[in-house]
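D-inositol 3-phosphate glycosyltransferase
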Amino acid sequence: MKIGMITQWYDPEPGPASLPGVLARELVKRGHSVNVVTGFPNYPEGLLADGYQLQPRLRETLDGVNVTRTFLFPSHDDSLAKRLINYGSFGASATALGLDSLRGADVVWVNYSPITVALPMLVQRYLRGTPIISEVADLWPDTVMVSGFPAGSAVGKVAAPVLNAWVSSMYRASDAVVHIAPSVGGILAERGVPAGKITYVPKPANEQVFHPGGQSMRVELGIGEDQIVLVYAGAMGQAQGLDTLMTACKSLDPERFVCLMAGGGNTEEHLRSLAESAPSVRFIGRVPQEQMTDLMATADIAYISLVEDPLTPLTMPSKTQAILASGTAALVAAIGDVVDVVSSSGAGLAVNQTDPASIAAGIRQLAALGRDGLSTMGATARKTYQDQFSLAATTDLAEHTMAVAAGRTALDDTGTPSLSTVPLRRVHIESVARLHQQAFPEFFLTKLGPGFLREFYQGFLEDPTAVSSVLLDGSGRVRGAAVGTTEPAGFFKRLLKRRLVGFATKSAAIALKNPVHAPRLLRAVAYRGEVSDNLPGAALLSSICVDPDLQGQGAGRQLLDAWTNQAQRQGASSVMLTTDAEGNDSVNAFYSRLGWTLHDEYSTPENRRMNRYVKAVNTSASERISEDA
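Predicted structure tokens:
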């Protein structure tokens, strides 16, 4: 594939800013062409990296990746105004000067933090029609609201709805929304992102740097072989809340324990002053990226700390994967996802970040294991990394997500080698509309034309209750489609509202061309779903069509099973559909063979007799349907 990437952060920037490059290089190794639009490297100090000078645009090739850098205002200090200028300048220059390098891309991966990348992203999506994947690393607008606007402030009250609308527009424009912390998926769903778009793709570590086998720095740092070493490496800011670590270290014996503080930030001087009465603490400054392997080899314990705020439970600091990849036991002073990963796997211990006594007790508990015991815990940490976060595993997920968005491959292996199922994506809409016309040439919706059908299917991309499945052959050609909703009572009203302009335009043209269609057209546009009151929690299959050339080959069953399974994953207790009762024997027999039960019959305003079929997807639903029937 030809893959594009838009990210403000890229090599040679260190830490989390280096991770887009990790993904890009691995994709190149797998045979893809990768073009990156990024800024000039200035993270984390707001100073340009050696060898770079600000200019409108710079093109370079790094490890096989084509990189286009565009102008930005370098800044990473505490000034909110400067940060906004930093973010905004990149968004504007990337749009004006960077997007020409993404022409012809099959899919574009967007690191959506900061959200000023919305400008180049939306231009690429709507002017070029490129499928977009948004990666939610820092949840917006929460990030800026927590750090930039005091809760309840006048500015915050004005900014919140604007930022929420901004972010929502990015989600709508995305074919997939990737999150890197497990709990964020639920938040995205609550905010209206369709379940079919949400994908968990965790971040790996930079495996060129973080791995076992480094050379310990104990001798050069004057640390004894018997001393337990805790390393904190990273930013020293308000968000890390390292004051309590300094206080905890005051009670620890410097003859048996050493705390190494590597990195820097706006609280460093304050932390140094606190550590004056903690002889076990040593500040060693910023450690070059190429020396981090050796620093981690020096550590018996690595420290992760986050102050408690609304985002903490949803945050997975990139140092988590770095520590696990290095095979080092972790001490986690935080709450939420990071604690779940470390504690549940036995890779470390969790403590209360706000309580120095808890931190000191945690250090003593780990130190009591001795260096050999901590080495064993470190081996568990390494296995946890390999199982959950390795570059190979996470790139498999990312590559698969990009291929699905571009209409190139299957979402899972539930199908035969020649047929597979994926969620509905924008790239499928045109083909699905044509297939609908081919499969149902005499149906009313077909007679409304391809434009109306495109509007109809487009609505299933934008609703959080939508359930969809598309059948692809080995070449990526659409051979079937099934769409529906877990909330049929309100879905079609929302569809009409969202697609009002498109439906109105197409409907007016149809009514003028053939007035006889007007009454039924009005009913079709106002359709709310034929919902049965005694089937609460049932998902509605609104439309299913299969290429006539595949009839009798199991394709319909595969597609219907995939749709039903997805409805179950989205919380449906049962599924239902309607089909013609007369002159439709083969279709009715098909549903019966697959375990669908005839629930009731009804007639449409056109006196068209319809059968309603239901199928339970759990035991309780089966019992309820049996009683109702």
